[in-house]
Design a protein that fits this description.
The structure is a single chain. The chain has 248 residues and is mostly helical. The protein has helices spanning 2-17, 31-44, 47-57, 59-160, 165-223, 244-247, and strands at 19-20, 27-28. A two-stranded antiparallel sheet has the order 1-2. The chain is rod-shaped, with a radius of gyration of 58 Å.
């Protein structure tokens, strides 16, 4: 570009120093010098200007090609996005179906397990209750027999010692002691019977509590995700989902 400017400056100088034609504003310039300077300007002009001119000449064609490519790209992107969206919807529907099947299977297993545990708990409760009643009756019978035996022994001892005042006093004291001992033994046996029954019932209560806790934990894990629309699913067959309706 510096060479272009230099040639133009030289051309201007040639024109300014040219000999004028009398009576006119024209001048006589050396043709050879002017042509040489013009050749220098032509050679010095960068090739990018020609390329730019070509681009300007082909502007409408280039813009049209760009618009066609953009339209083709937009059409291809739309088609690909529709295909991806259809695939995503199909995959989502498949996952929803699988999740529902898994939830139904898990619910069925939890219900079966809870029913089995409830049945086992009832059976164990009946067995413990029967054993506790039997043991209570046995202890009560044993206590009554011991009480009667102690009372009988006290009365016999009282009759045997009735021979004198001191003997009678000692007999009364011994008889009272034996009766008190028999009453105390009967009370002790009764307390042992009550304690045994209470312990068995506490063991059964703990077993039922563990069973219900296991059932509630399983159902809580099952319902933790909720239904697909974000709300708990309706209770099945009128059940509340707490586990108490299974006992009833």
């Amino acid at each position: 570009m510096y060479r272009v400017f230099e040639s133009l400056d030289a051309l201007v100088t040639v024109v300014e120093e040219a000999r004028g034609v009398p009576m006119t504003s024209n001048c006589v310039v050396p043709r050879g010098d002017v042509l040489d300077l013009l050749d220098d300007v032509r050679e010095a002009i960068p090739g990018e200007l020609d390329d730019a001119q070509d681009v300007l000449d082909r502007r409408d064609e280039i813009v049209g090609e760009a618009e066609r490519e953009a339209e083709e790209t937009r059409t291809a992107a739309t088609s690909e996005s529709d295909e991806l969206l259809a695939d995503a919807r199909a995959e989502a529907e498949r996952l929803v179906v699988e999740a529902r099947e898994e939830a139904e299977r898990t619910l069925a297993e939890a219900q079966h397990q809870s029913e089995t545990m409830i049945a086992e708990g009832r059976r164990e409760f009946e067995e413990l209750t029967a054993r506790a009643r039997h043991e209570a009756d046995r202890l009560a019978d044993s206590g009554r027999a011991a009480h009667d035996r102690y009372v009988s022994d006290g009365q016999a001892e009282q009759s045997r010692l009735v021979s004198g005042t001191e003997v009678v006093r000692a007999a009364h004291t011994e008889a009272a002691r034996i009766v008190d001992s028999a009453d105390g033994e009967a009370d002790r046996l009764r307390r042992e019977c009550d304690g045994y029954v209470d312990a068995k019932l506490a063991e059964f209560e703990d077993t039922l509590t563990k069973a219900l806790r296991t059932v509630n934990r399983g159902r809580s894990q099952l319902w933790k995700g909720g239904s697909p629309n974000g709300t708990p699913s309706p209770a099945m067959n009128g059940r509340t989902g707490t586990g108490m309706d299974l006992i009833d």
